[in-house]
Target: DNA polymerase IV
Amino acid sequence: MPDDSINFDKERVIFHIDLDAFYVEVERQNDPNLRGKAVVIGGTGPRGVVATASYEARKFGVHSAMATAVARRLCPTAIFMRGNHELYRNVSKKFMNILREYSPNVVPVSVDEAYLDMTGTERLYGEPIDAADTIRKAVRDALGLPASIGIGPSKLVAKVSSEHAKPDGVFQVRQQEAEAFFAPQPVRNLPGIGPKAGEALAKLQISTLGELATAPIGPLRRALGPNNAAHVQRRARGIDNAPLRERVKAKSISAETTFETDVSSRSELEKSLKKLCERVGTRLRKSGQRARGASIKLRYGDFTTITRQRTFQAPGDGDQLIYDTAHALLVTAMRQRGDAIRLIGVGVSGLGEQAAQLSLLDQNPMADSDTSEAIDTIRDRFGSESISRGSV
Ligand code: TTP
Model:
């Protein structure tokens, strides 16, 4: 069956549910004084970064991944708090369990976000819009948290719809409406179009999904990669036949940087290492998992590449843990070979939820992840990190 043949009669009913300002709303459950106020959660130190901001703070231009110092300038009256990741993880588990009462096919995508296949549930829950309200109410009643739901015939359309449902709403787009719904939206609204692809498209004067959908394929192949262009173009028209459960949870998460000129200064390498560790740490915490160990990758000027790996004493997800381990590996590697470095990378591996449970045996397993200076930096739409499967 060609990829873009769509049977309108047998449309699937996919929900994409996403909790609103997740960390903030969890904190508000604990402390009702925070309700209705501008609240910013993230690193509070000099290098801290915003993990999430309440909608009241967003009105002042505060957003995720912004330096906390900038957020303070934009919204000085906001309440700034560090996060409590253990708490968010526990709430996340309860949230997913509620969803499982409504569909046998629930696919979590991050701590506060999941896809549900609701196809054929009309007899039980009525029209999709009503089913969505029932689920939102169940989440609100059990956890006190506002959720938004996008409804579509595919994960893609449901996901893009949920952005329009926010905050605290429902938005449905049917397959025959999808192309027109997508057309005026900026290309970056298409999941999978990150900053780099966005820039490459801007160079081709392509700014909307409509323009992307009708652009000549040749230049697109050069901009997005030969195997990617046609696929992206179909998605830009709102076509997606991917099954709900295609994501295998990443077994490792890594990020790397290639320097413009080779670097031998230790302090410069440490600076890059720190940034990479924070990126990896953010992705790790967002996935709700913990790692058993960290690794580094170094490529020297002559292109020889080494990797070094070390297991943590106990599984963890904190920036400091990742950095300390990666740093020790870097120092040892530099002692063995002091040549200038062309590329530096950091990874965490052995990811899992059982890893998280094991670490409860540890004395103070949460201290690091709770107090990480830059609790959460940049998700992939903001940066160049990569998620890879298998060992790093
Ligand atoms: P999102 O679902 O992307 O955002 P949100 O829940 O804060 O707000 P909304 O969906 O209403 O726009 O992220 C879920 C949680 O993940 C968020 O509460 C905090 C965390 N997070 C980070 O730690 N760093 C980030 O850069 C982002 C985007 C989110």
